[in-house]
Amino acid sequence: MSERLFGTDGVRGVPGREPLTPRTVTALAYHAALALAARAGVSRGAIALGRDTRGSGPALARQLARGFAAAGARTLDLGVIPTPGVSYLTPRLGAFAGVVVSASHNPACDNGIKFFDAGGFKMPPELERAVEAAVAAGRPVPARAAAVDDGRAQARRYVDFLRSSFPATRDLDGVRLVVDCANGAAAAFAPALFSALGAQVFAIGVKPDGRNINAGCGALATDAMGREVRRRRAHAGVAFDGDADRALVCDEDGALLDGDAVIGAAAVRLLSRGALKGGKVVLTVMSNYGLIRFLNERGVEVVTVPVGDKHVTEAIEREGLSLGGENSGHVVFRDFAPTGDGILTALQTLAAWRESGRPMSALRRLYAPTPQTLRALRVAVKPPLEGLGRTQAEIARASGLLSGRGRVFVRYSGTEPVLRVLVEGPDRAENARLAELVAKTYFSETGQIGEAHP
Question: Which of 90, 122, 88, 89 has the alpha carbon at shortest distance from 6?
């Protein structure tokens, strides 16, 4: 087993293979529980545990509960619940940690484990490294029977919080809304919540069977949402990923508002209310240059961080800000929550739309996006990019050609065997050509065979 367990967002893999074998999962749970208990200053207590709808989830949850018990912790089983629901409930239930069994937007064959501290924040990198080292050391895990309490009724508190985040003077009466839950954790929560606010909901992706999470639906397959919006003549659509920590929106024509558009709309709304703390917004390196220019023109400074919503949260906390996010749809509304929440994001976007009095398409057109080419290249290995001289030279050459007009960004995915090549500039054909040259140089230098990854 590799000593490196944690990626961009927790631990991921294929159940039954490292690092998601029963032995490693139990050891991971044991050492993580000890580390998070020490961080919280307690010697024992409860861990809030939730999961998405993958068929492998219950078995992984049982393995985790055994590891928690070995560390002297009880498990409060929240059942199937969105990841941000666990983040929200952990401090309110007095738990010293929260854990979610989910691989987010990945297919059903994958799964993963995400950890939160007592405050509902994702486990910090230094704690991840310490847990990795402890697991790698192979110290024996005490054998204790799992102590599991049924906490599923607590999910009502999360739903009440979400509803309270919508302006008390607004509702969704008369709104025809498509809601795509990706056959994931949002299915039991989002349609009912939007209906309670007055919307006529047309729900899709709400029949999870353990094998169909994210399959042709949800935030990574938004065509389904767009088609349903047009078919139903809806005012808008919202789509979540498997664990509902992100959301994307479409307008009345089925045209997509990605995370950047959602952040732009939220920033304008907060700015108009004098509620954009610090006059700044946190974006990742993947956000569109058009959004950056739009915000700068309104006096809003952009704080740029690496990809990963935990980096967004860290910057928000460090600078005392109220808004940040990723173009993938992870958006942090810090006045409400410490982490990205797809249902909360949808509610805040719908609130901005209702307050504007205009069609949803007006929010989509707030700014002119700079054309982008994004190549996702499947790779067998991930040699450090800084050590690839020819690839770095090609990236520098492309960046020079786009100087003052755009940019080039290349990185490995932290959750998948993928290299992402982003080229941004005013000419789509030039962007595509430069991205292809970077990809070809990378594959040539590393001796790998190129394969596009959707």
Answer: 122
Tokens in use for 49? 């545990």
Tens of pLDDT, residues 88-134: 999 999 999 999 999 999 999 999 999 999 999 999 999 999 999 99
List residues with catalytic annotation.
104
Distance CA 434, CA 405 (A): 14
What are the backbone dihedrals phi and psi of residue 391, each rounded to the nearest 5 degrees, phi first? -65, -45
C-alpha to C-alpha distance for 397 and 388, rounded to whole angstroms: 14
Architecture label for domain 159-256: 3-Layer(aba) Sandwich (3.40)
Its pTM surpasses 0.85? yes
Q: What is the pLDDT of residues 246-261, one digit of tens each?
A: 999 999 999 999 999 9
Collapse the DSSP code of 104 into the 3-class scheme (helix H, G, I; strand E, B; otherwise coil) and give the result.
Answer: coil
Q: Give bridge partners of residue 250 from the DSSP assignment.
A: 237, 256
In percent, the amount of the chain with pLDDT more than 70 equals 98
Write down the H helix ranges in 5-76.
22-40, 57-70
Residues 6 or more apart from 286 whose CB is under 8 A from it? 307, 326, 327, 328, 409, 420, 422
- Domain assignments of the chain as residue spans, ordered by start: 6-157, 159-256, 258-364, 372-446
Q: At what angle do helices 342-356 and 259-272 cross, to 10 degrees?
A: 60
- Could you say which DSSP state residue 6 is in? E
Give domain 258-364's CATH superfamily.
Alpha-D-Glucose-1,6-Bisphosphate, subunit A, domain 3 (3.40.120.10)
- Superfamily classification of domain 372-446: Alpha-D-phosphohexomutase, C-terminal domain (3.30.310.50)
Structure tokens at 227: 């088609």
Return the structure tokens found at 352.
């901005």
How far apart CA 114 and CA 104 sit, in angstroms, is 10
The CATH topology of domain 6-157 is Alpha-D-Glucose-1,6-Bisphosphate; Chain A, domain 3 (3.40.120)
Considering just the CA atoms, what is the radius of gyration of the chain in Å? 22
